Amino acid sequence: MKRALHRLLDRLDLAVQMLCILLLGLVIVGVMWQVLARYVTRGSTAWTAELASYAFVWLAMLAIALGVRRGRHMVLDIWEYVPYRRWLARLIDSVAFLIVAGTLLLLLAFGIEGLGAAWSRTAPGLGISTGWVALAVPVGSALALVFAVEAWWLSVNADEGEDPLDAPLIHQPADLIVIKGEV
Question: Would residue 104 count as lying in a domain?
Answer without folding.
Answer: yes
